[in-house]
Amino acid sequence: MPPILPVQRRELVVVTGRALVDQDVRQGRSISLFRGVHVDSRMRDDFLTRCRAALLTQGPDAVLSHRTAAVVLGLRWLPARWATSELSIDVAVPPAPTTTRRRPGLCLWERLIAPDERVDVDGLACTSPTRTLVELARETKLPALLVVQLMDGAIRDERTSVEALYDCTLRLRGHANIRRARELALRARPGVDSPMETRLRLTLEDGGVTGLVTDVRIEEDGRLLARSELADPRLLLWGEYDGYDVHTQQGVFDADRPRHRWVEGRGWKVMRFANGDFATGAICRDWLYEAALAPARIAAMSPSRSPEVAEAWRLLGLR
What we know:
Elements: E1 7-8, H1 9-16, H2 18-26, E2 30-34, E3 37-40, H3 47-56, E4 63-64, H4 66-73, E5 89-93, E6 106-110, E7 118-121, E8 124-127, H5 129-138, H6 144-156, H7 162-171, H8 178-185, H9 195-206, E9 213-220, E10 223-232, E11 237-241, H10 244-247, H11 250-265, E12 269-273, H12 277-280, H13 282-299, H14 307-315
Parallel strand pairs: 5-6, 11-12
Antiparallel strand pairs: 1-3, 2-3, 4-5, 7-8, 9-10, 10-11
Helix pairs in contact: 1-2, 4-5, 5-6, 5-7, 5-8, 6-9, 7-8
């Protein structure tokens, strides 16, 4: 019977004999996913099976990396095609070209992976979430937005942190494209709930907006009263991305309006954006316009209106 899990051909030959191994291949019962590694042909398109087979083609120090590691690790907001057979399996191997076993369908990366940068996921050796994200950030073919979205998602799930990502780039100082990785790591933020929130933030930053803070919370007596996805507390600008599927739900739709009125009653300017705004260029234009008006707007309010107004007065030097 063909093996359900990938097995090296030489091991199969020892157990069942060369003739039976070759017969299973000829009759379509087994398949060589990568040269020298056999598995039941019904498993040909199973992603994790392909990963196990890929590792068997290399030495014991090989680990899954890059896009493949991101899928195995279950990182948030990955492109769906990364888990399909369209893409090669990414494997990091020690820099020793003479012993590297290259195969069609494998993308080998010569990397030194420290012990604390390796993790085991269901028996599969992978680069850690932090090292995986830094390696993805080094790949200039991947859009910066996608990389920062993945970083934000991993930070949200407490799989890494901005500090951990930054420290990893310092350890790799001098490696190709590590400056890009460091710059992208410094753009990642905690408290991001969707990839579109990341897109909104980066769109504003790339358009010249500064002072943005994620996950701004208004609390009193330990109770959370309101939370903003993106804000500038100094200018009392409160930004939100309204995804159609979520914000058109009856309960969410009904709750949004009174919440926004309550926030505006405390002195904030609420700015809501939707997907269509990205194509018009209105996002940066509108935000910068309100930012220019903010100091006069804040100065016209009494600092007793809310603790946020009082703090904005202090930050703007109005008192």
